[in-house]
């Protein structure tokens, strides 16, 4: 009812660390994406680790801002002292990141290049 009346820009949901959280997540995404066209951000309670809270909140905010259409990063094509000018040269930009899942003892690498 709330989504129908108020039409928020984004819905943020905190999910339980239970086995049924996958079904809850799927239901939220279906409701927000398919039925109401509202952006959504789901967060599991286990993600909110007090030791890493600042980093976790920063990453969640970045995800939310990107979903809202903002650009999370920009690359300057020149150095402040003009020693490197990428505007007038063929340039490949490479991005690499790794996520360490401590609970599963596995890591995932992400890679992209222009």
Notable features of this structure?
114 residues; alpha+beta; two-stranded parallel ribbon; two-stranded antiparallel sheet; 3 helices; 4 strands; extended
Q: Assess the beta-strand content as a share of residues.
A: 15-25%
* Average pLDDT taken over every residue: 85
Structural class: alpha+beta
- Ends: how far apart? 44 Å
Uncertain residue ranges: none
Radius of gyration: 19 Å
Q: Order of strands in the sheet with the most strands?
A: 1-2
Q: Count of DSSP helices?
A: 3
- Backbone shape: extended
Largest sheet: 2 strands, parallel
Word description of this protein:
The protein is of the alpha+beta class and 114 residues long. The protein is built from three helices and four strands. It has a two-stranded parallel ribbon with strand order 1-2. Helix 2 (21-35) links the parallel strand 1 and strand 2 (39-44). The radius of gyration is 19 Å and the shape is extended.
């Amino acid at each position: 009812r709330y989504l129908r009346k108020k039409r928020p820009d984004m819905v943020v949901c905190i999910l339980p660390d239970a086995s049924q959280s996958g079904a809850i997540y799927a239901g939220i995404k279906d409701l927000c994406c398919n039925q109401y066209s509202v952006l959504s951000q789901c967060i599991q309670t286990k993600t909110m680790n007090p030791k890493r809270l600042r980093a976790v909140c920063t990453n969640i905010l970045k995800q939310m801002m990107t979903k809202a259409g903002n650009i999370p990063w920009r690359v300057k094509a020149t150095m402040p002292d003009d020693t490197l000018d990428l505007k007038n040269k063929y340039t490949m930009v490479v991005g690499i990141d790794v996520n360490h899942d401590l609970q599963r003892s596995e890591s995932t690498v992400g890679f992209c290049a222009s």
